[in-house]
Amino acid sequence: MRTESILLTGGLGFIGSHTAVALKNHFKQIVIIDDLSNSVMNNYYRLKSLVGDCLILYKADIASQNVIDKIFLSHNIKAVIHYAGLKAVGESIIFPAKYYYKNVYSTKLLFEVLKKNKITNLIFSSSATVYGKPLYLAIDESHPVKAINPYGQNKIDIEQMIFNDPYFQEQCSVKILRYFNPIGAHPSGLIGDDPKGIPNNIMPIILKVATQEHQELKIFGNDYQTHDGTGIRDYIHIMDLVEGHVKALDYNKKGIIVFNLGTGKGFSVLDLINTFQEVNKVKIPYSFVERRSGDVDMVFANPDRAKTTLGFEALRSLQSMCFDAWNFVKKK
Ligand SMILES: NC(=O)c1ccc[n+]([C@@H]2O[C@H](COP(=O)([O-])OP(=O)(O)OC[C@H]3O[C@@H](n4cnc5c(N)ncnc54)[C@H](O)[C@@H]3O)[C@@H](O)[C@H]2O)c1
């Protein structure tokens, strides 16, 4: 019988909830701490219907020391995936101090608890944002990091906190996962990307246009050096992304290692819209507006390290990402 449990900080969010489903049969208990700042209780009820009784929720901020201590006292936590944090790039430019506190300082507190409780298997959710403006493509993990906004700097600061800590270097297996652009949803349609307020990422905005909550999609820039003038990104299906987490958890070699999680293929904003329209037979009206400062022509991963070291490859198509994302919204 399994005796070990895992803690997912921010586990009610987009990526954490899909991971919880993927880990269902891997742990005795899947314990989530989430303050619901970007999720709602309905996410929990839907997730519970997929994961069952092994899912346990603590509604709290990761900075609540008494709650975190209680979690480690009450459950046999052996691994931690740290997702909790704020992720809106634009908001991070307006409120950099809030982002520093919520992302970097809260993580520092969390890491102290992990060390106190001798956690030896840790995954940290980083982002391809850390690479800034690409110096070359495809971006491998050796590409220099250089933040172009406070959110990206938060991720770099946390990565540095990990790299500089002897505990993480010597006694722990830490996997820093730099995600490219996760989209899509669980095929059941029960969970998906459902941010509170006005969405920041492209797929949730496309979905709001598809449901006619938003009139049209504003595309930032049509004069990039790409085949159709719109920016190219590396979209990865959320189900692939979480499979990458499962493989990373199983990889238990001591030390700190960084993995890109992407497909290695780039699609433009117009490719994404056209695919969404074709697959789902829904119209997405759009118009072009000025470029956003800091946006770059093209970003895509070199995913080779994850393939050779973890045996992980993201294979789901853009069609299936678009289909599953819309399926989630239709079933909501
Ligand atoms: N989604 C992406 O495109 C993307 C890309 C790169 C990196 N990431 C990173 O992956 C992680 C998860 O992203 P996501 O898309 O699932 O985000 P999300 O906002 O959907 O999920 C984050 C969850 O954490 C919770 N949370 C936030 N701050 C908290 C705190 N202080 N204490 C407890 N809970 C807290 C929120 O309520 C939410 O449920 C984040 O760290 C994000 O920066 C996401």
Could you characterize what this model shows?
This protein is α/β, with parallel strands linked by helices and 332 residues long. The chain has a domain at 5-184 and 235-263: NAD(P)-binding Rossmann-like Domain (Rossmann fold). 39% of the residues lie in helices and 18% in strands. The protein has helices at residues 14-22, 41-51, 65-74, 89-94, 96-116, 150-163, 166-170, 202-210, 238-250, 269-280, 304-310, 318-331, and strands spanning 5-9, 29-34, 55-59, 77-82, 121-127, 173-179, 181-183, 217-220, 232-233, 235-237, 255-261, 267-268, 286-289. The strands form 4 sheets. Strands 3-2-1-4-5-6-11 form a 7-stranded parallel beta sheet, sandwiched between helices. It has a two-stranded parallel sheet with strand order 7-10. The chain has a two-stranded parallel ribbon with strand order 8-13. Strand 1, helix 1 (14-22) and strand 2 (29-34) form a beta-alpha-beta unit. It binds nicotinamide-adenine-dinucleotide. The site of nicotinamide-adenine-dinucleotide has 28 residues, from helix 1, strand 2, helix 5, strand 5 and strand 7.
